[in-house]
Here is the input.
Amino acid sequence: MSMAAELDTAAGALLTVWDGARERAANRISTAQLRAVMLVERHDGINLRRLATGLDMLLSSASRLCDRLVAAGMLEREPGRADRREISLHLTAEARRLLAELRDDRRQHLAAILADMAPEAREALLRGLRAFDEAARARVVRQVSPLVPQAEEPRVEQTEGRDAVEAASRGWAAGDASVFRTA
Here is the structure.
């Protein structure tokens, strides 16, 4: 079996922990809404067009999603500072609490699993994941969807299409350590 196939198999347990935490939050917010909330968390003040791009959805769909999040008390809309016609999106205290609970739930489950591992295996896992993260960031040097303006950097390799938006959403291009789709 190839290294990639072995990693794919081994990562299943980690993804199960993330998905479990997300499922437990699903009674309060849908997966699409959670993705939007997490994107707004990382890019406070993001406008609707950039949110739609980051979520890989139509502007009209993102607008309806935001309407539901505002009604649920998760997002606030504010007129833009530069252009008052543009709307900036911000998290509410309730949304921040939800994300903190989600991450706490996930970390508790991870801690329980890590406790069953030998200390040297935990250290090896952490070293390996850090190296993996560094290599992944190096592959996505420039953010494809302009969620946050940034200085032009030399390109190592650019991913195209939806994968690029997903990678950019994960924060790799902007140097953010959070993982968007699973956080």
